[in-house]
Amino acid sequence: MITRSALAPGVLQVEPDAAAVAERVADTLLRALRRGSCLGLATGRTMVPVYGALRRRLADLPSPERGALLAGWRSFNLDEYVGLGPADAGSFARFMAEQLGDPLGLPAAALRLPDGLAADPPAEARRYGEAVRRAGGIDLQLLGLGNNGHVGFNEPPCPADAPCRSLALSQVTRQQNAAAFGGDPAAVPAQAITLGTAEIRAARRLLLVVTGAAKAEVLRRCLLEPPSAALPASWLQGHPGLRIVVDAAAASQLPLS
Ligand code: GLP
After folding, report:
1. Annotated catalytic residue 155
2. Structural domains in the chain, sorted by start
3. Of these residues, 150, 177, 199, 239, which one is catalytic?
4. Is 6 or 239 the better-scoring residue by pLDDT?
5. Which string of b and e fits 230-255 if b means at least 16 CB within 10 Å?
6. Pick the catalytic residue: 155, 177, 199, 247?
7. 92: Cβ below 6 Å to ligand 1?
8. What is the position in ligand 1's atom list of the atom closest to the CA of 215?
9. pLDDT of 77-97, one tens digit each?
10. Using one digit for the tens of pLDDT, what is the confidence trace for 144-198?
11. Is the pLDDT assigned to residue 1 strictly greater than 60?
12. Which contiguous run of DSSP H or E holds residue 62?
């Protein structure tokens, strides 16, 4: 595997603000859809402007091309809370339906997520990881960054090759995601199912998207410290298909000339 510095110009792209980041990322997603790629999709506030920009691009296409892209849509989301399904406002299934599924009129089966309502979460995680493999893996994996360095819900400590699994969420993460649960961290489910660092690193291309000054320090550590279980996103370093798009605020702790 060819290792390239995470700060090299072809890897890291710094945009002025979150809106500009969203435009660049939506361009990449549209190109991937045109190639018939299998997308790995992510949730979180970072992705709201990204999906808004993608919806606008699709709306601007001539209707036959838009129809063909939507008919060929193939995606797997990274993660879902255990115990929540599409009817729950805080679920990632609901988030994806609101952001993409409903406005684009995608068939329910096109936007795949782990089933948070499955009776046996470890078995569901194995099934989901297998479904990703059977589909030929992910061509382009979109990733946000947790405040504790998680990607998907791969909470630290996490090895480089963790498989899709169910796991307990950390307090930091439940705090980070509390806004979707009336601001109460205790209302955030305690468990989730996530694609592992194994499936994520097996994706042919990775697109890490980070915005806001609050993530500047964790981004710096994930890109510049030696990869370690303490910072799951640090395992992305050296992936030959890694691209990182950030705004100036998130880049503020990076040693860029
Ligand atoms: C959740 C998701 C992560 C995402 C993170 C970032 O924890 N499981 O995949 O990276 O949110 O959230 P935000 O974009 O809201 O900061």
Report:
1. yes
2. 4-247 (3.40.50.1360)
3. 150
4. 239
5. ebbbbbbbebeebbbbbbbbbbebbe
6. 155
7. no
8. 16
9. 999 999 999 999 999 999 999
10. 999 999 999 999 999 999 999 999 999 999 999 999 999 999 999 999 999 999 9
11. no
12. none
